[in-house]
Amino acid sequence: MRRAGSFFLVFIFLFCLPAMPVIASDPKSEVEELKNEVEKLLKRIEDLERRQVESEVKTQETEKKVEGIEKVTTKIEQEDAKLKEEKKTRAITYWRDGFNIETPDGRFRLQLAGVLHFDTRVFESGRSTGGFDIRRGRYDMRGYHYRGDTEHVFRLQIEMADGPYLRNAYWMFKFRPELNLQLGQFKIPSGGADWLTEEAQVNFIEYATATPVSPFFDRGINIHSFFLEGKVQTCLGMFTGAGIDADMHKGDQDTHRDYVLRLLLIPFKDSENTYLKGMHFAGSYQHGYQSIKTRRGETGNRTENYESRWFNWVQDYVDLSNRQRYGGEFHWIIGSTALSYEFNRVEWEDLTVYDRAGGTVNAIYPDRYHADVHQVWISYFLTGEEKQFQDVFFSWRQPKPQKNFSLKEGTWGAWEVLARYAYHDTSKDLFEGPGSLLQGSNKGYSLTAGLRWIWNPKVRIMLDANYLKSTDGDGIIVERAEKGGTARSFKESETALLMRLILTP
User: Fold this and answer.
1) Which of 311, 281, 285 is nearest to 299 (CA)?
2) pTM of the predicted model over 0.85
3) Are 399 and 414 in contact (CB under 8 A)?
4) Non-local CB neighbours of 111 within 8 Å, separated by 6+ positions
5) What is the pLDDT of residues 398-410, one digit of tens each?
6) Do the beta carbons of residue 445 and residue 452 sit within 8 Å?
7) The dihedral of CA 298, 302, 307, 308: what is its sign?
8) Residue 24 DSSP label
9) How far apart are CA 314 and CA 337, in angstroms?
10) Up-side HSE of residue 134: CA atoms within 13 Å toward CB?
11) How deeply is 236 buried, as exposed, middle or buried, from its count of CB atoms within 10 A (0-12, 13-18, 19+)?
C-alpha cells in the first residue's frame, strides 16, 4: 500500500515537473518586463512626437522660405519691369557707318559724323597756283526724333574750312511715302544729280555743273513724294531765292519766292532685266523773280580745276527780272558700269546794270540769256562694286568695298576708273559792251580721267587729270600772286592733276 502510494506520488511529481518553472516564477519580474515594454512604447511615442514637431517646424520653415522666394521673385519682376521701362529712354551707343547714340526702342537716334577733304593740286607752268588745301571740313549731326508712325528726321551740318557757316539745317517729317515734309536750309533740288550728290559721295573731285548754272543752298520748304513703290519720285519746293543764312542774315531780299520741281522716273525698277532695271530718267525746273543777283549765285563759274573760272560776274549792281533753271538727265547703271548724261541751264531775263546802288543805268539787257553745261561720264569698278542712285534728292551714292583694304589679310579695297566730258556754253552778248556783265570764256570744254581707290566706307582716295579748253571769248580766268598782289590773266587752256583724300569719320 505504502509502495503504491509512493508510486502515485512519483507519478504526480513527474506529471507536474514541466509546470514547475511557471509555478516557481516571480510576479515582480513580469511587472518589470511590462514596465520596460511600456517605457519602450512611450519612448517610441516621444520619438514620433518629436519627429512630428520637427517636421512641422521644417514645414513652417519651408513655407517661410517659399514665401520669401515669392517676395524676391515679385521684387525681381517689378525691378525687371522698371528696368525695361527705363531702357525705353536710356541711350545706348554703337558704331554703324558712324558713331550712334540710340534708345533701345529705336525711337530716338543721333549720329555724329563729318567729312574732311584734303586736296592737292598740281598745274602746268604759268597757269593756276597749286598746293595743298583743306577743301572741306564739316561737322555733321543727324538722327531721328519720335520715330514711329510719323518719323522726325533732323540734320545739322557746319562748314569749318572756308569760314564757319551753317550749311544743312533742316527737319523732315515722314508721314507716308507720298508725303515727306522738309523744312529749313538745304540744297535746292535742281541743277542735276551731279550737283545734288553729297560731297562725301562725289563721283569727281570737282563738279562740272557749278553756280550759277546750279543753285546753292537756300531756306525753304520741300515735299518729297514716292509713288508706285518708288518708280516715280518727286520734289516740290518753295525757297526764298536769297541763299543761305550767312549771306542774308535778315532773311529774304524781296517778297518773291523760288518754286522748284524735281522728277525722277525708274520705270523698270522691278524688272529682272539688268539693262532695263538700271535706267533712271530725271529732270528739274526752278523759277523765281529776283530783285538783285545773289552773293553765291551770280558771282562766277568755277572750272573743274577749282582754282580757275570759266567766267566772272563783273557788275556789282544788277537788277534781275527773273531767273530760272531747268535740265534733263539720264543715268544708267549696269552692274559695275554706270553711264550718266546731264544737261543743265540757267536763264536770266531783263537785266539792268547800274553804276552803283540807286545810281544811273549803265546797260540794259532786255532779252533772255543763258549759261549751259552738258556733261557725260562713264564709270567702271574693276573690283565688281555697283554705284547706287538714291538719296534725299535722288542723287549718287558710292558703294562699300566688297573687301576692305587690309595689308594683314591681303585685300585691296575697291578700284574704280572714270572718264568725263563737259561742254560749257554761255550767251555771248553778256560778255560784250562797256557795261558787260561777264568776262572770261563763253564757250569751252573739259576732259577728265579719274582713278579711285576706296579703302573702306570711310576712306577714299581720288585722282583726276583735267584738261580745260576755251573755244570762244577772252579765255579761262587764272589768278596768281604777282608784284605784291594778285594778277588776273586769261588762258586758252589749262591742265591740272587733282588729288583728294576723303575721310568721313
Assistant:
1) 311
2) no
3) yes
4) 97, 98, 99, 100, 141, 142, 143
5) 999 999 999 999 9
6) no
7) negative
8) H
9) 42
10) 10
11) middle
d(CA 464, CA 343): 22
User: Residue with C-alpha cell 574732311?
Assistant: 116
Residue type, 424: H
* Residues composing the chain: 505
In the block, residue with C-alpha cell 520741281? 261
- Judged by average pLDDT, the poorest of 32-36, 99-103, 226-230 is 32-36
Query: Nearest Cα to 324, choosing from 370, 288, 374, 368?
Result: 288
- Report in angstroms the alpha-carbon separations of 377 from 74, 340, 342, 505: 68, 5, 9, 29
d(CA 193, CA 209): 10
What's the one-letter identity of residue 306?
Y
pLDDT surpasses 80 at 106? no
Is cis: bond before 212, omega within 30 of 0? yes
315-369 pLDDT per residue, tens: 888 888 899 999 999 999 999 999 999 999 999 999 988 888 778 888 889 999 9
H helix or E strand, kind and range, residue 276 = helix 274-277
Q: What is the DSSP string of 25-77?
A: --HHHHHHHHHHHHHHHHHHHHHHHHHHHHHHHHHHHHHHHHHHHHHHHHHHH
Cα within 13 Å of Cα(416), Cβ side: 31
In order of 40, 199, 216, 221, 252, the CA distances from 243 in angstroms are 111, 19, 7, 13, 8
Q: Are 459 and 268 in contact (CB under 8 A)?
A: no
